[in-house]
């Protein structure tokens, strides 16, 4: 046989036998899967290790890994990342089996959390795992024996929510109390100052915070008095600012929408030196919009730089600064006809705002936080917030009805200036007693607010009489808006009692102790505070003892049950609404009983809570429903709310995010100086409320990067301060589409799809605020 024939036959045999040789080389079992990081993105370059077999594989850019040529085994996959918890997954592989373990989800490492929030986190999820606000220490939400709801910047961006008032409808048990920056939390009006990074600011009531530099919004339900002093009984709102990142990045977003709405936002961050010990972040925003409401407009801006200094593992310092300004008007709501309970007797566009009315406000916040690690177990933290406000207002408003469809107008101006300084200092110490561990906290807080109000009422005495407080008339049926002769108005003594603020200076201070104990499946939280409150001008002094007790039991590693008791305290403090009371103010005292469940599900991709509570509040302050003096307040005897709240939020899949909430609450007057009020439902407190937002992004095919979103807000029937006026319940549906390609993103949201007419809140038929009709908002963004 010729040689070339023998060679060809040999080559043919080798070709035919090659698959068998190849299969023999890769014979054995296979284990493969995908690793998803804590932000819901593929985790590239992550080591995946078979613990006993001692074999390591690295994930590719899509987060995929594979082990080949494995024998039958029973082993443990160990997946580790610097910023995540070590993930362990048991695997059993039969001989020659091909095992796909699917998606493996990492979560943030609690040990990596900072004792205070100094540097930022590049999160990209609707879910927040931790909070510093609940305990003043690094704590997982699941371990805190109190309900805490969060709204992350990702949810805020996806829904294109530009103010705090927009974003609060994402939280169970929270709804708008009025058209101002007032909310109902667990059945009770919340109007106290918002905390900023756990420090007391000041609430100007008539305007709502821009969210340009906000990382997330936290609402802790029930009292927070043991750690923070006087507070609203239903809950406290905390705004966590964006902190610098050690990786350079920048983003710009442009928006446009209904009623000539234009907005621009920018966010840039990164290190300022090669050692990454000095980090910066700068956020800025500008907003210009008109409204469906006659005469309503708003132009605002905010500039917010932030610096973090982290020279070593012992010292951390952060400085946040923010200046914001708004040029708008004071919207008192849609007035109705006299003695007519029909909400729609006048159009929702109707207002009493006259050309030339204005509300100008500037807010300046400076926040300094420092942490020093004295030893391995002992840390000292100090925080300071200076919050200054300057508000100038000129408004026409309803003085009295002349006929059922015409009114007389008052005119008032004021300048309202405030300075609030908040200081907190505390030590934390970690200790162990056998299997029992402690995290002890001892601290001192000081808060001082100084306010100055200069308010005047005016009149035209030659036309309407001396002391009338009237400057003109206005027809509700045939409204005419024209420039009023403000320069000819004369100062009036009408409503002069409403021009004084009861306390132009108040300060409060407190000392507190807290112990977080852990033993096996049990955790306990014990807190005590002694609060010393003083109103300098009124002579009011209050010393109050404020306890807090909570327990947590781990039913499963990912499910905790908890119960808690809290006592709250809220004395009178100066308010921009120039609150006047018909008798000396008595401090508001609250007591909260709460129990519930918290859990991480779907490999910690979904966080859910269920809470049951009873909240009892004494000396509740409510508006007196005096149309001509909207700043007059009265105190009721005792109110009580009982309810259930449920929430679920997270990135269920890398391309599927959800935020769901539901609340059932019954808030009633249980004691009152007016016997007819006993048993009545509290104003602006619905029995049922729910909300949702679901976002899905396609990851394959020609529509890769394209996504859809949908959600709703539902609020039940509500009473008002006027027994004859009831606000009907409503359901509003919203939806959106989005597309992302490389560094660019595009989005379009349509809100109130069915064009539902509804009311977000009301005092009476004069001061009621309609919800926004159907509208759209479009966004174009670029990430550098």
Describe this structure in words.
This protein is 5% helix and 54% strand. Residues 7-26, 497-503 and 573-581 have low confidence and may be disordered. It has five helices and 48 strands. It is mostly beta strands and 784 residues long. The strands form nine sheets. The protein has a 22-stranded antiparallel beta barrel. A five-stranded mixed sheet has the order 10-16-17-14-15. It starts with a helix and ends with a strand. A hairpin with a 7-residue loop joins β8 (130-131) and β9 (139-140).
Point out poorly predicted stretches: 7-26, 497-503, 573-581
Strand content: over 45%
- Average per-residue pLDDT, rounded, comes to 88
Estimate the global geometry from the Cα principal axes. globular
Question: Number of DSSP strands?
Answer: 48
Q: Cα distance, first to last residue?
A: 70 Å
Please estimate the helix content. Answer: under 10%
């Amino acid at each position: 046989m010729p040689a070339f024939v023998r060679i060809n036959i040999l080559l043919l045999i080798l070709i035919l036998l090659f698959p068998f040789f190849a299969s023999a080389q890769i014979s054995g079992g296979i284990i493969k899967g995908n690793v998803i990081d804590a932000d819901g993105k593929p985790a590239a370059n992550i080591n995946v290790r078979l613990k006993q077999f001692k074999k390591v594989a690295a994930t590719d850019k899509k987060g995929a890994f594979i082990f080949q040529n494995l024998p039958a085994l029973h082993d443990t996959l160990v997946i580790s990342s610097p910023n995540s918890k070590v993930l362990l997954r048991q695997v059993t592989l039969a001989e020659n089996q091909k095992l796909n373990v699917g998606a493996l989800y990492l979560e943030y490492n609690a040990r990596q959390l900072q004792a205070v929030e100094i540097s930022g986190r590049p999160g990209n999820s609707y879910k927040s795992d931790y909070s510093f606000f609940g305990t003043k220490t690094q704590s997982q939400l699941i371990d805190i024996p109190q309900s805490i709801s969060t709204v992350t910047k990702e949810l805020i961006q996806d829904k294109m929510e530009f103010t705090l008032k927009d974003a609060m409808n994402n939280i169970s048990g929270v709804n708008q109390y009025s058209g101002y920056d007032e909310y109902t939390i667990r059945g009770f009006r919340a109007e106290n100052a918002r905390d900023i990074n756990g420090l007391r600011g000041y609430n100007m009531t008539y305007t709502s915070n821009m969210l340009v530099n906000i990382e997330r919004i936290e609402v802790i339900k029930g009292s927070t008095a043991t750690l923070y002093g006087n507070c609203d009984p239903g809950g406290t709102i905390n705004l966590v600012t964006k902190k610098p990142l050690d990786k350079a990045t920048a983003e710009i977003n442009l928006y446009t929408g209904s009623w000539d709405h234009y907005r621009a936002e920018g966010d840039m961050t990164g290190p300022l030196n090669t050692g990454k010990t000095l980090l910066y972040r700068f956020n800025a925003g500008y907003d210009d919009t008109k409204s469906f409401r006659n005469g309503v407009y708003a132009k605002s801006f905010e500039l917010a730089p932030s610096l973090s200094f982290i020279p070593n593992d012992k010292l951390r310092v952060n400085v946040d600064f923010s200046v914001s300004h708004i040029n708008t008007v004071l919207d008192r709501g849609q007035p109705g006809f006299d003695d007519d309970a029909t909400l729609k007797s006048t159009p929702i566009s109707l207002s009493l705002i006259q050309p030339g009315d204005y509300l100008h406000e500037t807010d300046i916040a400076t926040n300094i936080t420092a942490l020093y690690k004295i030893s391995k177990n002992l840390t000292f933290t100090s925080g300071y917030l200076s919050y200054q406000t300057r508000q100038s207002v000129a408004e026409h408003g309803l003085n009295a009805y002349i006929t059922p469809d015409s009114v007389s107008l008052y005119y008032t101006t004021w300048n309202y200036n405030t300075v609030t300084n908040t200081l907190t200092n505390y030590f934390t110490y970690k200790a162990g007693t056998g299997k029992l561990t402690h995290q002890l906290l001892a601290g001192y807080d000081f808060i001082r607010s100084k306010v100055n109000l200069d308010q005047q009422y005016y009149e035209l005495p030659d036309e309407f009489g001396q002391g009338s407080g009237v400057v003109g008339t206005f027809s509700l049926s045939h409204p005419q808006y024209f420039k009023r002769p403000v320069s000819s108005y004369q100062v009036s003594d009408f409503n002069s009692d409403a021009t004084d603020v009861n306390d132009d200076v108040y300060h409060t201070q407190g000392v507190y102790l807290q112990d977080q104990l852990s033993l096996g499946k049990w955790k306990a939280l014990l807190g005590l505070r002694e609060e010393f409150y003083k109103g300098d001008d009124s002579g009011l002094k209050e010393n109050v003892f404020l306890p807090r007790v909570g327990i947590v039991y781990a039913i499963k590693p990912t499910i905790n049950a908890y119960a808690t008791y809290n006592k709250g305290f809220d004395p009178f403090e100066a308010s921009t609404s120039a609150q006047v009371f018909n008798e000396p103010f008595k401090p508001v005292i609250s007591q909260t009983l709460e129990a519930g469940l918290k859990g991480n599900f779907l490999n910690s991709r979904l966080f859910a809570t269920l809470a049951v509570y009873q909240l009892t509040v004494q000396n509740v302050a409510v508006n007196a429903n005096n149309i001509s003096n909207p700043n007059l307040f009265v105190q009721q005897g005792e109110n009580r709310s009982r309810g259930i709240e449920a929430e679920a939020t997270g990135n269920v899949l890398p391309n599927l995010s959800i935020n769901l909430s539901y609340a059932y609450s019954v808030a009633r007057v249980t004691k009152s100086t007016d016997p007819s009020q006993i048993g009545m439902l509290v104003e602006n407190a619905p029995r049922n409320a729910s909300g949702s937002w679901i976002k899905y992004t396609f990851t394959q095919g020609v529509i890769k990067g394209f996504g859809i979103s949908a959600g709703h807000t539902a609020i039940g029937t509500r009473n008002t301060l006027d027994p004859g006026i009831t606000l009907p319940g409503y359901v509003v549906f919203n939806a959106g589409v989005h597309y992302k390609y490389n560094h660019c993103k595009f989005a379009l949201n349509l809100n109130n799809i069915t064009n539902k007419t509804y009311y977000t809140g009301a005092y009476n038929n004069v001061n009621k605020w309609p919800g926004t009709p159907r509208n759209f908002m479009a966004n174009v963004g670029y990430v550098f």
